[in-house]
Amino acid sequence: MEDQINTEGQNTLKIEKNQTNFPCHPSLLKKSKLNLLIISTFVLFFLFIGSLSIYFSNIKSIQKNLNQPAVQTPTPIIQRSIADIALAFIKDGSIYIADHRGAIDKVFEINKEEFLSSENLYKAYMKLSPDKNYLAYLGTSGGLDSAIKIVDIKQKKKVSEEIYGSAYITDFAWSPDSKKIVVAVNLQNEERRFMTSLYLIDPLNQTGGTPLFKVENIEISQVEWPDAQNIYYSRFAYSLENTAIVHYNFENKSRNLKIIWDEIPGFAIKFLVSSDKKDILSCVGTKNNLVPLCNLQTLSLPSLEKNSTLLSNIPIAKFNQFQWYKNYLVDIEKDGDSLGSSIFLINMSEEEQKIRLLHTGQNGLFHSIKLLEQNEKLILVVWSEHDGQQSIIAYDFDKLIEKRKKGLTSEPLWKLNNSSSFDL
């Protein structure tokens, strides 16, 4: 039995070996290769057809896009915010605006015959409207007639003008809502030097020329319009030989005045309205037979009654180009014909402490100054001239004071060369 079992195991093993080493028949191998070739051909064919479909689909899409109008991305327009405008000035025969950082933008080109002569540029004949959308400047019509011209700052074009013929315009003021302008117009003739009234114009609606009162034998040198109901102006009456600040009330068409000089001062008296519109600061004359003196006083609005005296017995000539901010007075003083001019600070909260902030040096001149407030920071802007070259320079007011107290000079925040006549 053992022999039988072994024999069967050997036979089984032999059969399995023979099955493993059995070779393929040649006809079967040829048939297998043919099937593989056919399958590969079909796969390549379908890939080719698919590629052609995608190609022609893309071609049609491109042609469709080419036939459609191109969509253009709009170019962003960068425009200066009206709130950033700090001042307007003249440069290269054109009106420019500048912000508190000294960045400038051209607004309007002025023909030479349309603007005042250069010797009159420092007389504040250019003013921004309170909303800073418009600028009004005094000019001429063909070099013969005086006129007020209005420029739209956003559109950068002239939108209105009011012509007064041969009359002499001494000053004007915007209304608080920036819609109207009051103009001091002096009519000249052979017998009397000035016949004057205030005229109300509405430049945006092209209407104007309405007098607020009858023409009088007075000279008006300054006009302010701080609130909707009240206008204030300074005037000299030739027949009475006195200077007064006058309050005009729109509601009842009435006027009341405060005489600040009872004799001829020799030049116009300047006054300033406080930032809160509650007071006027002016130079009120005092009796002196030798030198004209004044007391620097505040007058309450609208009554024009005396409020307080800030400085006493001051030579009047020293306060004709001054600025007022809280307890500060900033003024221009000429040192002489060729020694230049200086800008002085008087701090009335420190026992009238006086500091010379800036000096032009020899053959230099300061024409006008302006105090700008931004985010509780004060900037002093100066229009200066040296050796015939004019420029507008801005300083950090507090730093300038701090440096000068230590006897040091202060670097300007910015400087505009070949620039002049900023608005006041």
Features:
single chain; 424 residues; alpha+beta; four-stranded antiparallel β-sheet; 46% strand; globular; disordered N terminus
Radius of gyration: 43 Å
What class would the helix/strand composition place it in?
alpha+beta
How many distinct helices? Answer: 3
- Please bin the fraction of helical residues: 10-25%
Q: Report how far apart the termini are.
A: 136 Å
Beta fraction = over 45%
Shape: globular
Largest sheet: 4 strands, antiparallel
Strand order of the largest sheet: 3-2-1-28
Low-confidence parts? 1-29, 58-79, 117-124
Compose a concise summary of this entry.
With about 425 residues, this protein is an alpha+beta fold.
What does this entry look like structurally?
The protein is an alpha+beta fold and 424 residues long. The protein has a domain at 324-424. 17% of the residues lie in helices and 46% in strands. It is built from 3 helices and 28 strands. The strands form 7 sheets. The protein has a 4-stranded antiparallel sheet with strand order 3-2-1-28, with no helix packed on it. β13 (230-237) and β14 form a beta hairpin. The longest helix is centred in the first third of the chain and has 42 residues, at 26-67. The N and C termini lie far apart (136 Å). The model is unreliable at 1-29, 58-79 and 117-124 (pLDDT under 50).
SSE map:
Layout: H1 2-20, H2 26-67, E1 85-91, E2 94-99, E3 104-109, E4 126-128, E5 134-141, E6 145-152, E7 157-163, E8 168-174, E9 181-187, E10 195-202, E11 207-211, E12 218-227, E13 230-237, E14 242-249, E15 254-261, E16 271-273, E17 279-286, E18 293-300, E19 306-315, E20 322-325, E21 328-334, E22 341-347, E23 353-359, E24 364-374, E25 377-386, E26 389-396, H3 397-405, E27 414-417, E28 419-420
